[in-house]
């Protein structure tokens, strides 16, 4: 974040990063905030199993992940769940059957930028397992896992690991 030095308003090399959430220009008093981004993670479940994806790109390529992604402008978290499940696996979701479970902060490192996120967790229960049509640019495979088979160290992101540890192992 420190590499952003030039003020987008006055053009001077006077932009300073506060180390957490904003840049300020000492020349013209411009302030640029790097706010928290909204993201969703969907626990698609069937009985005592959860559907995981395996990441096919950085960050955390090869690690297990829950389906989901970043919230787009003018989109609700529930709409993001529906869009992401369809984009990643061609799953059509009934938005009214999504159940909000909770949220955790996270840091998403991408191309040398640390994005602070608020990850919103949802559950979507299915009556039977199904075949998935993968978006292979994002996902290399999908796996149904029981909690006895889940290694939390294989989970890509800290927020998901913490949430699953609480949700899956204490529920």
Automatic annotation (TrEMBL):
Its cofactor is Mg(2+). GO terms for molecular function: metal ion binding; NADH pyrophosphatase activity. CDD domains: NUDIX_Hydrolase. It comes from the Bacteria. SUPFAM superfamilies: Nudix. Keywords: Hydrolase, Magnesium, Metal-binding. Residues 32-167 form the Nudix hydrolase domain. GO terms for biological process: NAD+ catabolic process; NADP+ catabolic process. GO terms for cellular component: cytosol. This is NUDIX domain-containing protein.
């Amino acid at each position: 974040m420190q590499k952003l030095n030039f003020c987008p308003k006055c053009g001077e090399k006077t932009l300073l990063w506060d180390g957490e959430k904003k840049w300020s220009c000492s020349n013209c008093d411009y302030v640029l905030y790097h706010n928290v981004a909204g993201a969703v993670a969907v626990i698609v479940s069937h009985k005592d199993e959860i559907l995981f994806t395996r990441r096919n790109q950085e960050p955390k390529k090869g690690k297990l992940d829950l389906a989901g992604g970043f919230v787009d402008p003018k989109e609700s978290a529930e709409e993001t769940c529906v869009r992401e499940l369809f984009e990643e696996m061609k799953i059509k979701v009934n938005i009214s059957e999504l159940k909000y479970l909770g949220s955790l902060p996270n840091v998403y490192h991408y191309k040398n930028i640390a994005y602070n996120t608020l990850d919103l967790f949802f559950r979507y229960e299915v009556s039977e397992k199904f075949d998935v049509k993968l978006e292979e640019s994002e996902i290399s495979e999908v796996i149904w896992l029981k909690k006895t088979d889940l290694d939390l160290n294989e989970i890509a992101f800290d927020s998901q690991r913490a949430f699953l540890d609480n949700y899956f192992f204490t529920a």
